[in-house]
Amino acid sequence: MKVLVINCGSSSLKYQLIDMSNENVLAQGLVERIGIDGILTQKVEGREKYIVETDLKDHKVAIDLVLNTLVDKANGVINSMDEISAVGHRVVHGGEKYSTSVVINEEVMKNLEDLVSLAPLHNPANIIGIKACMALMPNTPMVAVFDTAFHQTMPQKAFMYPIPYEYYEEDHIRRYGFHGTSHKYVAGKVAEVMGKNIKDIKTITCHLGNGVSVTAVDGGTSVDTTMGFTPLDGIIMGSRSGSIDPAIVTYLMKEKGYSIEEMDEILNKKSGVLGISGVGTDFRDIRSAARENNKRALLTMDLYGYQIKKQIGAYAAAMAGLDAIVFTAGIGEHAPEIRERALIDMEFLGIKIDLKKNDNQDIGEGMEISTEDSKVKVFVIPTNEELMIAKETLALTK
C-alpha cells in the first residue's frame, strides 16, 4: 500500500509518497510559490533532484503537477495514480472535536471550515489542499491528521486558562497544543529504543525548530504542553515571543499607539530569537555569531536553554517522575549548545549529560547523550511527521 502525505501551506506544499509495506520513502518534494510563478523540487534516492519551474495559479494546479511528476515515465516512481491507496493530510487544528485522525467526508469538511477561526493562518491552506486532492482523486480515501489531536488527552487543569469560564464555553478558548504528530512519533520511538512499553514510562519531548513546543508524555499520552490556544504560546521561537506577561501587549499599544495588526506582527514575526539576537531566525547564524562572542547571540542561546530547562523541571513535577527526555526537529537535532544549556546542572533530577556524546553531529536515526549512570535517559531522535501521518492514514483506510 502506497500513501501520499500532503502538508499544505498558504503558498507551498510538501509531499512524500511512502510505501507502507517497508516504510520506504519513494519520493519527497516541495512545491513553492503557488499563486506566483511556481517551483517543484522532487527528490528520489539515488537520483539527481528533479526541478520544474512553471506557473501554478492555485493548489489544485500544484497538486496536479505533483501527481503528474510521480507518474512521469522519466522522473516518477509509480506507473499510475491507481497505485496511491490513500492520501494523508496534515491539518493544524482539530479543536475539541477531534482527538484522533479521521477519514474525511462532508461532515469533516464542514467541521474544518468551522474551525478556521481557531487557526486562520493554517487551516484554510489545509482545506484548500484537501479539496484539490478530492477533485483530482475522487475515489481515493483521504485522512485528516491533526496537530492538536495528540494533546486532547490533557486534563482540564492543564488546558484551562484562568479567565472567565464563559470564554471557554462560548469561544472555545483553552490550551490546545500543537506539533502533536511529532511528539507522538518521538515518544513512541524513545520507548522502542529503551525496549520499554510506552505505557510504563514518563517522557518529556522537546520539539525545537522555528516553532518550539515541549510536551509531558505520561504512559504514551500528552498530559501537558507549552503551546496553547495558538502556536504563539510557550518557549521562545524563531520570530515568536512565546509566553510573556499579557500586560506587555496593552502597555505597548497604549504607549506606542500600535494597532492590533501591528502588535500581532511584533509578537509573531519580530520577537523570539530574531528579536533578542538581532541576527535572524536561523539558528545556524545565531550559533555562528555566538562563537564570535556576539553578546546578544549568546544571550539568546542562554535564554533559549534556560526556558527549556525550567520546562523540564516543571513537567517532571507534573508527572511526579521522569524516565526520558528527547530532543527533535532542526534545533533539537543539530544544536548541541542548546541541549547542553538545557541539561547542565540537572543531576539533582537524575539527569546527567555526556558532553562528548552531545557534541556528536552524526545523529543518524538517533543517539543517546546521557551518561551510563544517568537515571533519566536523554536522546536525540529525528522526527518523522510524514511517516506518522502515513501510519495513521494506513490504520484508518487499509
Task: Describe what this molecule looks like in 3D.
There is one protein chain. The chain has 398 residues and is α/β, with parallel strands linked by helices. The protein folds into 2 domains: 2-146, Nucleotidyltransferase, domain 5, CATH 3.30.420.40; 197-385, ATPase, nucleotide binding domain (Nucleotidyltransferase, domain 5, 2-Layer Sandwich), CATH 3.30.420. It has 15 helices and 14 strands. β10 (212-218) and β11 form a beta hairpin. α10 packs across α11 and α11 (295-319) packs across α13 (336-343). The longest helix has 25 residues, at 295-319. It starts with a strand and ends with a helix. The mean pLDDT is 93.
Helix and strand topology:
Elements: E1 2-8, E2 13-19, E3 24-32, E4 39-43, E5 50-53, H1 59-71, E6 84-91, E7 102-103, H2 106-114, H3 123-136, E8 142-146, H4 156-159, H5 166-171, H6 180-194, E9 202-208, E10 212-218, E11 221-225, H7 247-256, H8 260-269, H9 272-277, H10 283-291, H11 295-319, E12 324-328, H12 329-334, H13 336-343, H14 355-358, E13 367-368, E14 377-380, H15 385-397
Parallel strand pairs: 1-6, 6-8, 9-12, 12-14
Antiparallel strand pairs: 1-2, 2-3, 3-4, 4-5, 7-8, 9-10, 10-11, 13-14
